[in-house]
Amino acid sequence: MAFVAVYDANVLYPSVLRDVLIRVAAAGLVQAKRTETILDETFRNLRANRPDLDAGRLERTRDAMKGAVRD
């Protein structure tokens, strides 16, 4: 049985770390958890700090994360 890990906004914000952690969960090494509140915080901060990022792309990333890491 895999360990349960809560993926908080501080680890989902950096794209490289987010990618690695989602891959770790997809490989079954951990049972990843997140909440809508965590995703709200992550993407609110990305939009505030990185206005150069395309809003549509951020929404697609968020949707992909919802599918990859269930709450």
What does this structure look like?
It comes from Actinacidiphila cocklensis. This is PIN domain-containing protein. The protein is mainly α and about 70 residues long. It contains four helices and two strands. It has a two-stranded parallel sheet. The mean pLDDT is about 95.
Provide a concise account of the structure shown.
This is PIN domain-containing protein. It comes from Actinacidiphila cocklensis. This protein has helices at 9-12, 15-26, 36-49, 55-68, and strands at 3-6, 30-33.
Which runs of at least 5 residues are low in confidence (pLDDT < 50)?
none
End-to-end span in angstroms? 18 Å
Strand content: 5-15%
- Could you tell me the radius of gyration in angstroms? 12 Å
Instruction: Give me the side-by-side strand order of the main sheet.
Output: 1-2
Protein name: PIN domain-containing protein
Organism: Actinacidiphila cocklensis
